[in-house]
Every structure is written in C-alpha cells, then in structure tokens.
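agent> fetching stored inputs for the magnesium ion docking request
agent> found them:
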Amino acid sequence: MSGSDAFANRGNRDASVVNPRPSGTIDSTRRSGPVGEGRAGDPFLIGEAMTGGYGTGPDILHDCTIAVEQGEIAVIVGPNGAGKSTAMKAVFGMLDLRQGSVRLNGRDITALNPQDRVKAGMGFVPQVNNIFPSLTVQENLEMGAFIRDDDISETMEQVFDLFPAVADKRKQAAGELSGGQRQQVAVSRALMTRPSLLMLDEPTAGVSPIVMDELFDRIIAIARGGLPVLMVEQNARQAMNIADKAYVLVQGRNAHTGTGKELMANEEVRRTFLGG
Ligand SMILES: Nc1ncnc2c1ncn2[C@@H]1O[C@H](COP(=O)(O)OP(=O)(O)OP(=O)(O)O)[C@@H](O)[C@H]1O
Ligand SMILES: [Mg+2]
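agent> prediction call returned; pasting tokens
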C-alpha cells in the first residue's frame, strides 16, 4: 500500500505495514509459534503487561495493558508519541514483546504472526497506508478478504449496507475518495474477513467534524452489533463519550484506566487531556 495525502501529515509515519525491513513490520517470513491457553476470567481480548519496542531499540511500551470485553468499545487516548500505535501493533503481532502476553477469545496468541492473528479473528486498520489507493474500492474489499476462499459477496453487501458511500464508489479508485470515505473503505476492508474483533488506529484522522460523527455512529453500530472494537482516537472527549473502557497512555505506560465516564470525571484527566 502506498501513501495517501489525507494521512500524510500526522502521527506515526513509519509506513510500517509496507516497509520490508524495519522492525514493527509485517514480516511474512516469520513463522507463528504455538497457541496457548487463555486464563479464566479473561476479557475477550487482552494485551497484558506488554513491554517491548522496535527491533533491538529501546522499550516503547512499559508494562502496558489494554483489554476489550465482548460487544464493547475500548479506546486508547494519549499525547502524540505516547505509544498508542505501538500498543496496537503489539496486540496485532507486529512487535516482539519482551514481556507480557496477548490473549484472544480464550487463547494465548502471543506467538502468532499478524497473518495468523487475522485468521484468529483480528481485523486491523492501521493509522497510515490503510488502503490501496490505485485499486478500486471493490478491489480493496476483495484484497481485504484475502484469507477467505468462500463466497464473499454477502459480506460485501453487509459492508455496503453499513457504508452506503462505499457502495456508491465501488468502481472508483480508492485514492480518489475523500478522507472520510477512504477511512470507510479501510474499515470495510478490515470487516471483509468477518473478524471477531475490530482494531482501529485513529479512524477519524483528518476528517471533518460531521464526517467524524458519522464514523463514530457507524463504529458504535458495529460494536452494538456484537463486534468488540478497540480504537485509538485523537479526539479524546468524543472517544471517551462512546467508550465502555478508556485507556490513557503516557510514555508507553498506562496513566489512567476506567470507563469513559470515570475518566471524563477525573480531575487530572480533564486538566491534562480534555482541556479542563
Ligand atoms: N517503526 C518504528 N521504529 C522505531 N521507533 C518507532 C517506530 N514507530 C514509532 N516509533 C517510536 O515509538 C514511540 C511511540 O510512537 P507511536 O507511533 O506508537 O505513538 P502514538 O501514540 O501512536 O503517536 P501519534 O499520536 O502521533 O500517532 C515514538 O517515540 C516513536 O518515535
Ligand atoms: Mg499513532
């Protein structure tokens, strides 16, 4: 996937889904290790006590824990460079953790590579380079379904129902779409595998407030439809409004954790992250 202007100017620009070598990338030669057992009382997804960084570099995450319950929305917020995207990549298997584990739906998947995590039910929309701009919208969705060998037409119709704009533009090159429509295509692409967990890194980056509200509505609909959502969001206030669980990360550590309501009522969180 190559760059797209709408995302060019913010956040982590490491293009890590495509870079062939720097660590934190999807290395297709990396074999998965064995799947272990989950633990009693686990949430649907938990990245627990994750410590690790990129390649042989310093640790970016320090004992960081992120979890999502079935049917809920969990959000990660925090300042630029706090490690939000790194936490998502760690959960998705793009970093080798030095400590901690990732468990999904009763299984320990810490040793799985990203491709096998997709097979295990993860759908991931990275912060950047999350569509193929030169392919049509429909081709993007077909690419999204790469792990499936059954009939994908029903899923495509469901995605079109969820995002009518995506249906309208299906024959158009994805790169020609507006920022908001591209984000819809990116989310749609991730849904094509019929994931059991949807992970979104800043899905509303670079879109207007109206489009942002629409995207939030769709994400809430997805979660209420039974698909748990873990998302990073730069609009902290809106994010906490819709969050069942919210995580504030600072310098790779859990700074605050609670329900969206709890964190919005927390004096320090308000002062530091919500502008008073
Ligand atoms: N591929 C990489 N290789 C080495 N260091 C990286 C890489 N990607 C990110 N980092 C470093 O990890 C730290 C956390 O970055 P990360 O992208 O996870 O932050 P973030 O919270 O997602 O920030 P933003 O809000 O800007 O998206 C930063 O110091 C960053 O420079
Ligand atoms: Mg980021």
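agent> quick read of the result: DSSP finds eleven helices and eleven strands in the chain.
agent> awaiting further instructions
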